[in-house]
Amino acid sequence: MSHAVLALGVVVLCASGCVWYLPAVTDVRAGGDRPRSRRLAAGACLTGWGTAALLAPLLLAGAAWPTIGCVAAAGGAGCAALRSRALVEQGRERRETDRHWAVLGGRPVGEPARPRRAFTAWLLAGLAAAVAVFAAVLAGGTASGTRLAGAVAAGASVTLVFLGLAGVRAHAAARRG
């Protein structure tokens, strides 16, 4: 598949992703009116979509596959780091809110099990690993259709394994809660 076709696919994907990145822009622009965890999550969203958008000109310019893979891996790592930080911050904010409500005698203190959080954590780890495997396979030698197919297959396999783990972990968390 030529670089131009892939670039067209990336552009169409980025155009359709506006339902995620436009609300994220709004959250970032709102500044202090939004909780810090929400702004960090919005930054992660914008980093991910910005990385995808950056791939289109690289593909059109005919950049080497290792370069494209490294850009994708760096963007994925930055996105995962920001999202992880947002989850930590969200937990801190939730604990602080629970302490305030406990002082007021309101809702009970304690966090129920969160199967969605477990699923998201495992899925993000899997996607980051898949991007790393994809980049490593592409960086291993000269670009060819076989190498690209192998990289896609390896990335998809890692994603499926982590998707299965995410489902198992989410089910276990739901059973505990």
Which tags fit this structure?
177 residues; mainly alpha; single chain
Radius of gyration: 19 Å
Q: Helical residue percent?
A: over 70%
Largest sheet: none
The helix tally amounts to 6
Any low-confidence stretches, pLDDT <50, length ≥5? none
Q: Average pLDDT value?
A: 84
User: How many strand segments?
Assistant: 0
In terms of quaternary structure, what is this? Answer: single chain
**Helix/strand order, N-terminal first:** HHHHHH
Question: Which word captures the global form?
Answer: globular
Q: How much of the polypeptide forms β-strand, as a percent range? A: under 5%
Structural class: mainly alpha
Query: What is the terminal-to-terminal distance?
Result: 47 Å
